[in-house]
Amino acid sequence: MGISSSGIGSGLDVDSLVKSLMAAESAPLNNYDTKTAAYQNKVAAYGKVSSAVGTFQAALTSLNSSSTFSALSTASSNKDVLTASTSSGAVAGKYKVNVTQLAQAQSLVSGGKASTSAMIGAGAKTTLTFQFGSVKGGTFGSSGSALGLDVAASGIAGGSLTINGTAISTNGTTRSARDLAAVINDESEVTGVVAKAGTTTTAADLFKTFGDVVVPDGGSYKLTVGGVDLAAAAGGESVTAATIDTALGETATKNALAAANITVTGSAANGDLQFLAADGSNISVTEAVSGEVTGGIGVQPGGANKGSSTTATAGVTLSASDGSQITVGGNNPAAAGLTAGSNGSYIGAGFSQDGSQNMGTVTLDTKDQSLQGIRDAINKANIGVTATIVSDGGDNPYHLVVTSNKTGASSAMKISVDGVDGQPPDAAIASLMGYDPGGAQGLTQTSGAQDTKLTMNGIEVTSKSTTVADAIQGVSLDVATLGSSTLTVTKDTGTVSDSINAFVKAYNTLNSTIAGLTSYNADTKTGGVLQGDSSVRSIQSQLRRQLTASVEGLGGKLTTLSQVGISFQKDGSLAVNSSKLNDAIANNFSDIGGLFAAMGAASDGAISFDKSTAATKPGEYAVNITKMASQGKLASDTALTGSTKIAANTTWTVTLNQTDPATETKVQNIAIPAGTYDNTQLAAVLRAAINGNSTFAGAGDAVEATVGSDGKLSLASSKYGEMSNISIAGVTGTAVSDIFGGASATKGSDVEGTIGGVAATGNGQTLTAAGGSNAEGIQLTIKSGDVGDRGTVTFSQGYAYQLTLLSATFTGKDSILQGKTDGLNVSIKSVADQRDKFSERLTAIEARYRAQFTALDTMLSSMQSTQNYLTQQLAAIAANN
Predict the structure, then answer these.
(1) Which of 182-196, 769-783, 855-869 is least confident?
(2) Which residues make Cβ contacts (< 8 Å) with residue 767, sequence separation at least 6?
(3) pLDDT tens across 208-233, in order?
(4) pLDDT class for 3, splitting at 50, 70, 90?
(5) Strand partners of residue 326
(6) What are phi and psi of 469, to 5 degrees?
(7) HEC states along 655-692?
(8) What is the pTM of this model?
(9) Burial class (CB in 10 A: 0-12, 13-18, 19+), 801
């Protein structure tokens, strides 16, 4: 193919000619661009309106929430001690709070092991059952032995004793358990340890033998107990056991002994006379004799009595206020009857199951029976405790630490160790992990389960956690440390005022945006991009119409925006009269919520208003209940005896809230801990065992267990309605019939009734107004009460609620603005398609022009060549002539 260039042959400027012609041909492209720009400007304008509507909707959010109008603000005078937050139901007030104890979780630690992975025991399959409840009675601490006679004589030297690192001020006057307890308690605020002196008791056989005392002429005998003279005789006189008993019955002797804090049991005549000092004072029993006296304490009749002296002492019991280990030290703690080191266990206590907390079981296979394996098995079971391993750096450094995930005194643990399939547990595991506050304590408690304790305006308050809810109705305290603070709760009028002003500002922004896009500027003689657009004008007019209407369904004093100081100005904007708004907030705070938000309330306190829908019409609707919701239930046919024994390896199959068709996970085998229980304990244990099943818990299935005034035990599904049911069958151990007899289970039922005179739909305890009625969408929860007329439910739609619904029609799918934008985008695409087609035509036209001029150029070039040839030939002819 040859190489050519436009105009190369003839000199014709083909490019300039084609460009000039194509410039004329391309002129219509400007019209397409102008149309596209106009459409795009309108799309951008609609986007501005849509954005302003979105901002307006966002400003309505706070006003559309009923919680905004029930909120209160709190102020704590000492935020280091506590802070607070409020919810619905709170009221304004001022409260003086003094925190004396913080809630904590129980933590237990095992004895030390040399390895974390070494096998413990023989590997017999073993289960750990965790129960949660309260430690009842007794103390947590350690009991010391009775003080020695050397202490009674010369006291406890200084430096002998420290408790939790604090020196106890013992000295030569610390000679009794009472004295020792007093000096220990002087440091209780520092140590957290309280001491109680034991009861001093003389030997049980002290007066087992008491020979009649015979005093010779010139001799004497005197019997003294705790400094109180009980008997005395001079030459020729005698003292018998009966004489002593007679003296003990005399008022003067009784008063003297009482003054010495001494009480008496038994009698000398019976040989079981004992003296006791409840405050731990030492009791000295002394016989002072002179001459050849015979008989007396421990002396047969006629036997010589050279005089005697004995002193009875007691020890102290230490208790830790927070259930922590007590560290005993000093250079001679044994003098105080105490053992050096870390001490602490429950003494004389018992355990009471908390029925509201689920029981958990951990199965230990052979591979799990090391510290590491036990830790992992416990954590994997997810039963409300966390296990870790810590090292103390000693010869057997590794300890398993088990901590309850919950704080509070009712979250103390009892850990039972059992075998599987009727076999005994592994003895080594049982010794390591068994823990019962009322029995064997294989684990050591390092932190006791305790509640938060405080006083509120002098009233004692306890809480399971450091969050104290509803000590003040609707107020939640977050307690951080011990101390005092004054809490002030006031109406949160600032949030309401700010929300109203933000709403007015957002409306004015929307209004000015629409005005700017639709107006005409006479000075510049230009109109807005959306001038004359009826859709945008419609948005503006609909909003104004809604804002000038009154709110229906309210029972309060406020029904229009003008009553709270909001009014339209000449330019169509809103303005707020702050003085009038503040006055409305101050005097009609309870009514402002209904003016803005969608509010519903039932006149019956046992009925709660849950929600409504966009279809719900404002108004007051009567509520009538024809049938209350019920729970699926299994109740014993006879009263419990008050003491029920559950045999070892008892397993029941529990079917709970079974569906139709049946669901396998609704049927579970439940192990019931062995033991002998009173009625309350049995109900708590059954509830905790069933609710501790992870499958049931994961599906939200649970039971309630109660013992009625008739003594009958009832297990009920915690759910209400047609799908609420329960049944139990025995597998091993104690038979179900041993407790429930031949009772049959009953299914639950849904609530039935009408709202606004129209039959409503019941689902459990919820009742929803039927479609097609004015009350459509109102949902109520019927918590309790009787069948029959149950008052009314009132519903209103405030400005914010109505404006939110209205604004939703302006933007989003199938809305006014979206429809307009979609139409413009279609037009833009159409113009683009037309422009593309016209551009294709221009390309063809340019090609044709270029071809034509190229042909002309070629022809001119040929003619020029011919001309040149002829010119040359003619010139040659002329030259030859």
Answers:
(1) 855-869
(2) 625, 751, 752, 753, 755, 760, 761, 779, 780, 781, 782
(3) 999 999 999 999 999 999 999 999 99
(4) very low
(5) 343
(6) -100, 140
(7) EECCCCCCCHHHEEEEEECCEEECHHHHHHHHHHHHHC
(8) 0.71
(9) buried
